[in-house]
Amino acid sequence: MIYAGIVAGGTGSRMGLDIPKQFAHIGDKPIIIYAAEKFASHVNNIYIACPSEHIEYTKELFYKYTDIKNIHIVQGGKSRMGSVLNIVSQIIHSYGVNNDDIILTHDGVRPFVSEEIIIRNINAAKKFSVCGTFCPAIDTIAVSTDGKSIQAVPPRDTMYNVQTPQTFKLSVLKKMLAMSGENIEQYTDLCGMAMGCGYPVHIVLGDEYNIKLTSPIDMHAADAILNK
User: Fold this and answer.
1) Does the pTM exceed 0.90?
2) Nearest Cα to 4, choosing from 38, 50, 53?
């Protein structure tokens, strides 16, 4: 089977919101709904990890705004990695693990992921077991280890912005999580964890519309994309 695991544990603090940012509206519905809808026709089950105090509210939103089947709302963890672990644990508890199972992990506040990116992730995971979505960097990136001075300016053509989905054979992700154990929280990113576990990460090209909505200016950009 193919699963989507959508992490929706944000608080909205950087946007100055009094609700978690994934529940904020763009256009006529919440951000999290747009994100889930993109996966609905490509996966067998969608898992949403959200704060425990918003589980019932999230269920109400999906009942109100969509008719997507096979939506599962689970409790998020204390971090992104904890939320992914909860999703994987729930999948394995319900369905077990088969060698050809695929899981796409995605940010709940990336509502404009294209179906082409989703399809490319699924195909790449089938072939390479581990892949992620990356977009070539437009800006030159500087490296500072102390926040006071610059230690390096890597060649821009070697730099990529990290996007999601990050996609895996479920059996491989299960092994990665087990290998990381108590050290799982040192990772902020599943592809980083894959590399730490010795798995090469295949590049799936993303695009400039697949933005993550984290600040007020991102919301203006989202409105512009919707209007376009």
Assistant:
1) yes
2) 38
